[in-house]
Design a protein that fits this description.
With 318 residues, the chain is an alpha+beta fold. The protein is built from 7 helices and 15 strands. Strand 14 and strand 15 form a beta hairpin. Helix 1 packs across helix 2 and helix 6 crosses helix 7.
Length: 318
């Protein structure tokens, strides 16, 4: 029998799935796909147009978004080295589903996850994340179900309850209607509700849909896999937000989404599918981040700032 790639989830845990923050364990490191050499090969094989390269302030404040850069002319091995000793966050987007070697593992681990949790996974995608010491991810929310499988290094993810005080219905509507990306307004008082989840290699965490979260790395290179997936429950919930977002914008209705009876959600889901085809959003803001730097192994932090940009963009002294 082929060993499951995840463990630490039991049948007794199923009532908590999707309703509470849940931790479990995985064996992704055993696949050999996340060593320096394997990651360098992955980056070399991955389309550069689908490689995210960013920087941010060390131990970034929750409300500080990242700064985009480019990594032209560098090999995968050089980019792994830059992530290891620089102030960088590098991600081959959708690598777990687009690279055949990684997809085989991803399909296996998602099958194991579905079997352990009882969840029916409709669609799933995942990115590989390489990030340097003390880098992070700002306060944001993802519309799909989300989890993080941690493989190398240490990091802490801060998860906030998916309630109106942290993520408004209007904010979720705007994300689903592609008016904004996933970042949210942040207030320091939100921290009193946050749950800090420290992660060591081989640990994973799964949180309730629409829970805002942010990440701060420890003092080392981090390698993780960020997974977004849809279940029937998540799809039905997003259908309600989508339709009510359209009604709010086009008819001025002051609709409420949270608390919608479950029996009505399939009708909303069908309505959302129809609206996306027959009446797509008037705005589709996929905001392009201006590239402010180039990865350079000889520069401080492996960052060579372009003309007109510099450390002041991070809130640091120039």
């Amino acid at each position: 029998m082929i060993q499951s790639l995840i463990f630490g989830l039991e049948a007794k845990d199923r009532p908590r799935v999707g309703r509470e923050i849940m931790r479990f364990n995985h064996r992704l490191a055993d696949t050999g796909l996340f060593t320096d050499e394997a990651l360098a090969r992955l980056i070399d094989e991955h389309p550069r147009s689908e490689l995210t390269v960013c920087t941010m302030q060390e131990n970034p404040p929750p409300d500080q978004t990242w700064i985009a850069g480019e990594a032209n002319g560098l090999s995968g091995a050089e980019l792994v080295e830059a992530a290891s000793r620089g102030a960088l966050w590098i991600s081959p987007r959708s690598a777990m589903t687009k690279n055949p070697r990684y997809k085989a593992v991803f399909d296996k681990v998602m099958g194991d996850f579905s079997k352990a949790t009882g969840l029916r996974v409709l669609t799933a995608d995942a990115a590989v994340l390489l990030s340097g010491a003390k880098m992070g991810i700002f306060f944001h929310v993802d519309p799909a179900d989300t989890m993080l499988w941690h493989i190398r290094g240490t990091k802490t993810i801060h998860v906030y309850p998916p309630k109106q005080e942290h993520v408004t219905e209007q904010a979720l509507e705007a994300i689903l209607l592609k008016e904004t990306l996933s970042d949210l307004p942040y207030r320091p008082e939100m921290e009193q509700d946050a749950v800090a989840v420290p992660l060591e290699p081989g640990e994973a965490v799964f949180w309730p849909q629409h829970s805002p979260h942010r990440v701060v790395n420890g003092p080392n290179l981090n390698v993780s896999v960020s997974v977004e997936f849809n279940t029937p429950r998540a799809a039905l919930t997003n259908g309600v937000f989508y339709v009510n977002g359209v009604l709010r914008r086009r008819l001025g209705w002051a609709v409420r989404t949270r608390g919608t009876p479950a029996v009505l959600k399939p009708a909303y889901w069908a309505g959302a599918k129809a609206l996306k085809v027959l009446s797509p959003p008037r705005h589709n803001v996929e905001r392009a981040h201006v590239r402010q730097f180039d990865v350079d192994l000889s520069a401080p932090g492996c960052i060579r700032w372009r003309e007109g940009f510099g450390p002041q963009a991070l809130g640091e002294a120039a």
